[in-house]
Amino acid sequence: MLLKDIKLPFANKMQIYAFVGPSGTGKSYRAQMVASERNISYIIDDGLLIKENEVIAGESAKKAPTKVGTVKHALFYEEEEKEIIIKALKKYKPESILILGTSDGMVQKIAANLGLPEISETIYITDVATEQEMKTARRIRETEGKHVIPVPTFEIKKDFSGYLLDPLQIFKSKGKGKKPYISEKSIIRPTFSYMGRFTISDVVFRQILEYLACQTPAIYKVLKTRVENYGEGVKLYMEVTIVYGYNIVTGLNEFKEKSKKEIEKLTAMNVVELDVVAKNIYVEGQGEQ
């Protein structure tokens, strides 16, 4: 797609930077630091358009089932993938963008596929990382199968339900008298990793729900739970006995809100739906009605 075809009148004033380095050497880990030093607010990395720690468009290429699929997605080969990013660019009109890639050819291809101007400056991983740091990054990639995405974990959990997600906080000083650089990254294990997919047993969800129900004054006991696992998350269904005297709607809504938060925090799984049905009422001294 040509620049004139996507109608980005502001693109001629846009500065395009590239951050290049072999896979697994720590580019995503250092992306925000490189962008911050050049006052760049927007990053394109593995299919995502990121603005200051927030994913604003795209879907991570690391979700692709194969390495070939990952590369194609990162290069924006599909028209639908291009249009999503182009639409966001039209909306936000960034003055500068940092594109991450494994080679000069890759970042140039990304810029061309999105109709962006030519790259004005290229930063290489060797400019910002030592050989030892790159070796450590490669070792983690090869032995643990982990990749970094330069956004906080909560920003990508929706797209990576059921995958291993670890928050990684970074604190670095730019030098004496300069403002420290603080950021948070997210480490994921991609679909194609030989380490395998991260899954959670249905029993875990039941145990969490039952424990939280015990801590909820409005619920006397859990009668039944059902767990359905979907690609985008889990659907949960519960039947409970309510304690007489409590407002059923208020009590169950508070339980649902707390349960959703706790399950997502403890398991990194999205709760797509949580239905709680009051089947019985427990009356003190009279038992269940």
In brief, what are we looking at here?
The chain is an alpha/beta fold. The protein has ten helices and 13 strands. α9 packs across α10.
Give a description of the structure:
By secondary structure, the chain is α/β, with parallel strands linked by helices. The chain folds into two domains: about 5-190, Rossmann fold; about 200-289, 2-Layer Sandwich (Alpha-Beta Plaits), CATH 3.30.70.1350. The chain contains ten helices and 13 strands. The protein has helices spanning about 5, 25-35, 65-75, 80-90, 105-115, 125-130, 130-145, 155, 200-215, 250-265; strands at about 15-20, 40-45, 50, 55-60, 95-100, 120-125, 145-150, 165-170, 180-190, 220-230, 235-245, 270-285, 285-289. It has a six-stranded mixed β-sheet, sandwiched between helices. Helix 9 (about 200-215) packs across helix 10.
Residue ranges: pLDDT <50 for 5 or more in a row? 1-7, 152-156, 168-178, 187-198
**CATH fold category name of the largest domain:** Rossmann fold
CATH architectural label of the largest domain = 3-Layer(aba) Sandwich
Number of strands: 13
Number of H- or I-type helical stretches: 10
Helix content: 25-40%
Please indicate the percent range of residues in DSSP E strands (runs of 2 or more). 25-35%
Approximate shape: elongated
**Structural class from helices and strands?**
alpha/beta
Radius of gyration: 24 Å
Q: What pattern of helices and strands is seen along the backbone?
A: HEHEEEHHEHEHHEHEEHEEHEE
List keywords for this structure.
289 residues, Alpha-Beta Plaits, disordered N terminus, 10 helices, four-stranded mixed beta sheet, six-stranded mixed beta sheet, alpha/beta, Rossmann fold, 2 domains
